[in-house]
UniProtKB/TrEMBL annotation, chain A:
<dbReference type="InterPro" id="IPR001611">
    <property type="entry name" value="Leu-rich_rpt"/>
</dbReference>
<keyword id="KW-0808">Transferase</keyword>
<protein>
    <recommendedName>
        <fullName>Geranylgeranyl transferase type-2 subunit alpha</fullName>
        <ecNumber>2.5.1.60</ecNumber>
    </recommendedName>
</protein>
<dbReference type="Pfam" id="PF01239">
    <property type="entry name" value="PPTA"/>
</dbReference>
<keyword id="KW-0677">Repeat</keyword>
<comment type="function">
    <text>Catalyzes the transfer of a geranyl-geranyl moiety from geranyl-geranyl pyrophosphate to cysteines occuring in specific C-terminal amino acid sequences.</text>
</comment>
<dbReference type="InterPro" id="IPR002088">
    <property type="entry name" value="Prenyl_trans_a"/>
</dbReference>
<keyword id="KW-0637">Prenyltransferase</keyword>
<dbReference type="GO" id="GO:0005968">
    <property type="term" value="C:Rab-protein geranylgeranyltransferase complex"/>
</dbReference>
TrEMBL record, chain B:
<dbReference type="GO" id="GO:0005968">
    <property type="term" value="C:Rab-protein geranylgeranyltransferase complex"/>
</dbReference>
<protein>
    <recommendedName>
        <fullName>Geranylgeranyl transferase type-2 subunit beta</fullName>
        <ecNumber>2.5.1.60</ecNumber>
    </recommendedName>
</protein>
<keyword id="KW-0637">Prenyltransferase</keyword>
<dbReference type="GO" id="GO:0048364">
    <property type="term" value="P:root development"/>
</dbReference>
<feature type="domain" description="Prenyltransferase alpha-alpha toroid">
    <location>
        <begin position="8"/>
        <end position="319"/>
    </location>
</feature>
<keyword id="KW-0479">Metal-binding</keyword>
<dbReference type="Pfam" id="PF00432">
    <property type="entry name" value="Prenyltrans"/>
</dbReference>
<comment type="similarity">
    <text>Belongs to the protein prenyltransferase subunit beta family.</text>
</comment>
<comment type="function">
    <text>Required for male fertility and root tip growth.</text>
</comment>
């Protein structure tokens, strides 16, 4: 009952309504009667038609009509004398009824579905449906049922995507404030996962893999048709299999050529999707530039109109984001020296340039932190070489709390057995990954950037005295913290500079700079919130792009960014917390940008501490107005962290795709991998073979892949260091030029013999090509990744900080124990202060579904565990989830509603190792 | 907040709901006849949140609910109508409210299989293939309409019955993820525009299956918090009018992704309270419009999500009071 005014009804209305109501009631009961008794006479059908015109939501009547139609159609089929027009008139009647029902209620799901159901029987015409849709779009340009129906019709009637895109343009031009049209545009621009589309491709390939020969023979002079056949077709097979092939296709072909033969080859649908494709390279430049221009019109026409906002953000995101997983940082970092003690005596150790670390069990964590959640980190994808390596011992664990088996951070523990060592003994450890496939991101991209890092571990000899753990209590008082000198901050910054300067990065920088200028212009005219927000995002993105080029880059715009967010908070107080969140990220970025800025927040702790805390350096971000933490990749070394007096709701971390480090310096000298920048990649297509050559700066060709036509697809392979094949550059060849970085696949990975039957021939054919090109081209990326701050895909929490031993979260806004769940993955955490938060004060738990529990079917749960347990367990299940696996020694929870005697005794029982609770010694 | 507490006409809303229940002959009731099962869920859940569930006779309700069960196992919107997944969830939720999910066992003698018989005769309908399709999506009934609403419904009801293992959860999740749009939201089928109601369905389905890692929380959070318009109310899509029902769809989604603090809660509370009919009870879509049970439920549930004093907290994913959900999953 939407939009109907509340008013007392008049008497005559009352009477009219009563009559209407009686009529409807009678129709409804007659309909049900006919339905139950399967009466499908004309009179009975008429009743259902009348009913649906008045009340299209009466779903059983639609079901009844479907049964009736099936019944009547089967009658007319059995009667061979029946003319086709009988069937036609039956179907027309159904269309007529849905039309009048939709006129009554254009949002009626039942009516729309009924129409689809009839249409699927092969009835009606595109023109007719389009005319009808035109009426509905005119009446309500935002009617999403109509838009959905439009996609259905376009698909069913094979209407070209060209026309559909044109339609969205028209809708936008007629009224720029049409979010629905923008949405449909983005959908066409992405077009990666549309099942209907894939179906279409599948059909095309299965039934007519070669296309229509006659039609394309004419082009043969240009060599196009064969190219299409031998090259594009197998790629299309892969469109059906997943997004990879799209990326692949779009990377291979420059925009205009792509359109050229795709227009020829199949429906314009493809060309449209591809022309608008965003994963590609030169495609991307052109498409994004065009689309940005269009959406600027929307934003600049009325800056408060939201129709273009999200589309614009998405375009910007596409401008600077890459989907490829990359290694962001590691612990230990490349080149670091670690000194490990097994007994906690590190204070007097003389290796000042060394990172000190305590491990009673002679194990220590090795952490890999990726920009995207990935799966497949294992001994077969990551090589770890050190003196005590036993292959089977290395077990990688995803630091994640969901069922997916993927995580942004992975940890393993290296074991140093108890051998008699003297202090001068150091052990080198070398880790390399990316040399074989297997690490895959959630969205299906392979990790393919080979990298290697190395560090040394020194194990101090065991001494007889044991450290007195009992007496140590961490006190987070100001007087215990002292500023430190740069020399005492031994943090291996995992940040190596690079001098990437390729076309893509240039284009990105130019685009971002143009956008910045444009939004500055906008703001000089009008003081609007979207202008400020976008400018802030752009400046952050700009700084990040710059930072990738220079390790010591200072966040040039951070003050301006912070100011912009401050303005926004005042201007739009309703969304204050959102801006605070974004602002926190900018703050965190500033802090972690370089060693110098980090140093300002590092303090030496001079109080008592547990022996497991080997370093006295505390990172203090207390009272820093943070509502969110971020940039954890830079903080993997932290053992003591003070986040008190902030505004944290949770310890979920803003995913920072933003900071990525060039790792090419690690791979120098590796014979498998060429770290030098490529000059060109040439993709050479010539029937019946497709060759791929990659040309290095020095003119050497390093890879050549060739695939023969499928009849004799016996020869394929990649030869390293083969020579430049210039004879293939002549004649009717297509040559595509690319610039960029490259790391190469190991030779031999393509040598698997192909023994194929005709049924599986095409996919194999495609796969083969795909393997060659995908691996090469996926690594053919700007080795930096950035995205706008708003699009953190999956959060990686504090769990990546595997060394964290003492954590202060007091005086924040944490509302429940479920918000602290990432802590369960911090096995070294001993001291936790969560006093003066809001735990227990809120009936609604906003992290209830972000934590593992039976509610979300995550974690190792057994409901009977609760059923059999005492009442407290049910009452305190969140605390149970959090603390049961932790080995805390010191915990502070005072100043929270939940903190009562009952709960405290529950905790003492739950955490047997606990020595101090709320400052009081336990016995 | 305290000054607002008195503004909520608890007793009037409860009386309004009971009166609608009794009213069967006016035009609105006749038009809504086919979805009485939804109405029962909306009304009864509202009563429970208001602490007034004792105003109805549980036995009467249960008897009526069970008389809407079709021989195939699914529930209809009312007696004599066809079964549909939409009404099956409401039936399961109503039974859960009264802690009577066990009648599904005992009423039909044929042992505990019946617990899922109700869903699964529907799910496995005619040809055992069930309402779940090859691509992981769900149909609403045997006529094949596909919508992520139905994915949510199937996942929610099966989870309440502890029978989530009866479907291919992985595929179901994959399908929902394929409906994700570039604005971070979700539509009813792949490619369909984001809509707050649909976003709720998808987010809740992902929440129940522990799959919220597929959600771009910050991007979606921004889209959702921008649903708040100047009056304080929430709309369901950009550039649309605010409507009380989005207090549920948008709020519950924001809660599940822990971004609810990004909106101005006080202004929203005020908007909902302004939509009350303070004379006759009930809540409408916008101030001074005609009230109905649907908006009364979403208004009250929205207030519950906003931690309005005196209301029972409601679970954002299962759309049932937290104590009911906890009883099902943590025993008691």
């Amino acid at each position: 009952m939407h939009g109907r005014p509340r008013k007392p009804t008049k008497l005559e209305d009352e009477e009219a309504k009563a009559a209407k109501s009686a009529k409807l009631r009678s129709l409804q009961s007659q309909l049900l009667h006919n339905h139950h008794n399967k009466i499908y006479t004309n009179e009975a059908l008429e009743i259902s038609a009348k009913l649906l015109e008045i009340n299209p939501e009466f779903y059983t009547a639609w079901n009844y009509r479907k049964l009736a139609l099936q019944h009547n159609l089967s009658l007319s089929h059995s009667d061979s004398n029946t003319e086709d027009d009988v069937i036609t008139s039956l179907l027309n009647e159904e269309l007529r009824i849905t039309e009048s029902a939709l006129r009554q209620n254009f949002k009626s799901y039942g009516a729309w579905h009924h129409r689809k159901w009839v249409l699927a029987k092969g009835h009606s015409s595109v023109d007719h449906e389009m005319r009808l849709l035109h009426k509905f779009h005119k009446a309500d340009p935002r009617n999403f049922n109509a838009w959905n129906y439009r996609r259905f019709v376009a698909e069913l009637m094979k209407r070209s995507e060209e026309e559909e895109l044109k339609f969205t343009t028209e809708m936008i031009n007629s009224n720029i404030s049409n979010y629905s049209a923008w949405h449909n545009r983005s959908y066409k621009v992405v077009g990666l996962n549309y099942s209907g589309f894939r179906e279409k491709m599948k059909k095309m390939i299965c039934y007519d893999p070669d296309g229509d020969d006659a039609e394309y023979e004419e082009d043969d002079g240009k060599g196009q048709s064969l190219v299409v056949k031998s090259f594009v077709v197998p790629c299309f097979v892969y469109c059906y299999h997943g997004p990879h092939c799209w990326n692949f296709l779009m990377k291979i072909f420059p925009f205009n050529e792509m359109c050229f033969f795709l227009d020829d080859f199949c429906s314009a649908l493809l060309s449209d999707l591809l022309r608008r494709g965003v994963q590609g390279f030169s495609t991307k430049e052109k498409v994004l530039t065009e689309e940005l221009e269009l959406v600027h019109q929307a934003i600049f026409t009325d800056e408060d109109d939201q129709s273009g906002w999200f589309y614009h953000l998405w375009l910007l995101d596409q401008t600077i984001k890459l989907d490829v997983p990359l290694l962001v940082s590691t612990w230990p970092a490349h080149g670091s020296d670690l000194t490990t003690s097994v007994d906690g005596f590190l204070e007097d150790c003389s290796f000042s340039s060394s990172i000190r670390f305590y491990s009673k069990s002679r194990k220590f964590p090795l952490v890999l932190h990726f920009n995207h959640p990935v799966e497949g980190v294992s001994p077969s994808t990551v090589d770890v070489n050190y003196a005590f390596n036993a292959k089977n011992e290395i077990i990688w664990t995803p630091l994640s709390r969901n069922n997916s088996g993927t995580a942004g951070a992975w940890v393993t523990h290296l074991n140093f057995p108890d051998v008699k060592v003297d202090s001068s003994n150091t052990y080198p450890v070398e880790v390399s990954l990316g040399n074989s496939q297997g690490i895959i991101s959630l969205n299906g991209f392979h990790y393919s950037q080979p990298s290697r890092f190395a560090f040394t571990v020194r194990i101090l000899p065991h001494r007889s005295q044991s450290a007195g753990e009992q007496s140590s209590t961490v006190v987070w008082k100001e007087e215990y913290f002292h500023p430190i000198h740069e020399s005492s901050l031994v943090v291996a910054f995992d940040q190596t500079s690079n001098n990437v300067d390729n076309e893509l990065s240039k284009w990105r920088t130019v685009t971002i700079n143009d956008e910045i200028a444009l939004f500055r212009d906008l703001l000089s005219v009008t003081n609007c919130k979207i202008g400020k927000l976008t400018l802030a995002r752009l400046l952050v993105a700009h700084d990040v792009l710059m930072q990738q080029n220079k390790a010591s880059y200072k966040m040039l715009h951070s003050e301006e960014v912070l100011e912009l967010y401050d303005d926004l908070m005042k201007m739009d107080p309703s969304h204050c917390e959102y801006y605070k969140h974004e602002r926190s990220f900018a703050l965190m970025q500033e802090v972690t940008a370089n060693k110098e800025s980090l140093l300002k927040h590092c303090f030496s702790y001079r109080g008592s501490m547990p022996s497991s805390l080997a370093s006295s350096i505390c990172l203090r971000l207390n009272a820093y107005s943070l509502s969110q933490i971020g940039c954890i990749g830079q903080l993997l070394w932290v053992q003591m962290l003070d986040l008190s007096h902030n505004e944290l709701h949770s310890i979920e971390v803003f995913v920072s795709n933003l900071v990525i480090f060039e790792r090419s310096s690690f791979v120098e000298g590796d014979s498998q991998v060429l770290s030098k920048a490529l000059k060109h990649i040439l993709v050479i297509c010539k029937a019946p073979t497709v060759n791929l050559s990659i040309i290095m700066e020095d003119g050497r060709s390093v890879v050549k892949g060739s695939c023969l036509e499928r009849e004799d697809m016996t020869e394929c392979g990649v030869n390293s260091d083969c020579d430049f094949i210039d004879e293939e550059l002549s004649g009717s060849l297509m040559v595509r030029e690319w610039c960029g970085h490259l790391s190469l696949l190991p030779s031999g990975s393509l040598n698997s013999p192909l023994d194929v039957t005709s049924d599986v021939l095409l996919p194999f054919y495609g796969k083969h090509l795909w393997d060659v090109f995908h691996e090469i081209l996926d690594s053919f990326v700007f080795p930096g990744v950035a995205c706008l701050a708003t699009s953190g895909q999956t959060s990686i929490g504090l769990e990546a900080m595997q060394l964290l031993c003492c954590l202060n979260l007091s005086h924040n806004k944490i509302c429940s124990f479920t918000a602290l769940e990432p802590l369960t993955l911090l096995k070294s955490l001993k001291v936790l202060d969560i006093s003066y938060n809001e735990i227990g004060a809120h009936p609604i738990d906003t992290t209830r579904y972000l934590c593992s529990s039976p509610l979300s079917h995550t974690g190792e749960w057994n409901v009977t565990e609760f059923e059999g347990a005492r009442i407290e367990l049910k009452k305190y299940w969140e605390a149970f989830v959090l603390f049961k696996g932790m080995s805390l020694m010191q915990l502070d929870i005072m100043g929270n509603v939940v903190n009562d005697e009952n709960f405290k005794s529950f905790l003492v029982e739950l955490i047997p190792k606990l020595r101090r609770l709320n400052g009081e010694e336990l016995h | 907040m305290e000054d607002l507490v008195r503004e909520l006409a608890v007793d009037k809303h409860a009386r309004y709901i009971v009166s609608v229940e009794k009213r069967k002959d006016d035009f609105e009731s006749v038009v809504m006849e086919h979805l009485r099962m939804n109405g029962a869920y909306w009304g009864l859940t509202t009563l429970d949140i208001l602490g007034k569930l004792d105003m109805v006779d549980p036995d009467e309700v249960i008897t009526w609910v069970m008389s809407c069960q079709h021989e195939s196992g699914g529930f209809a919107g009312n007696i004599g109508h066809d079964p549909h997944i939409l009404y099956t969830l409401s039936a399961v939720q109503v039974l859960a409210l009264f802690d009577k999910l066990d009648v599904l066992d005992t009423d039909k003698v044929s042992n505990w299989y019946n617990t899922f018989h109700i869903m699964f005769c529907l799910i496995y309908k005619v040809d055992v293939a069930g309402l779940q399709n090859e691509d992981g999506s769900f149909s609403g009934d045997m006529w094949g309409e596909i919508d992520t609403r139905f994915s949510y419904i199937a996942i929610n009801s099966l989870s309440l019955l502890h029978r989530l293992d009866k479907i291919n959860v992985e595929k179901a999740v994959k399908y929902i993820v394929s409906c994700k749009n570039v604005d971070g939201g979700f539509g009813c089928t792949p490619g369909a525009e984001s809509h707050a109601g649909q976003i709720f369905c998808c987010i809740a389905a992902l929440a129940i299956t522990g799959s919220l890692h597929h959600v771009d929380k910050d991007l979606l959070g921004w889209w959702l918090c921008e649903r708040q318009v100047k009056s304080g109310g929430l709309n369901g899509r950009p550039e649309k009018l605010p409507d009380v029902c989005y207090s549920w769809w948008v709020l519950s989604s924001l809660i599940m992704i822990d971004r609810v603090h990004w909106i101005d809660k006080k202004k929203l509370i005020k908007f909902i309270l302004d939509c009350q009919d303070k004379e006759n009870g009930g809540i409408s879509d916008r101030p001074d419009d005609a009230v109905d049970v649907f908006h009364t439920y979403f208004g009250v549930a929205g207030l519950s999500l906003l931690e309005f004093p005196g209301l029972k907290p409601i679970d954002p994913a299962y759309a049932l009071p937290v104590d009911v959900v906890n009883r099902i999953f943590f025993g008691g």
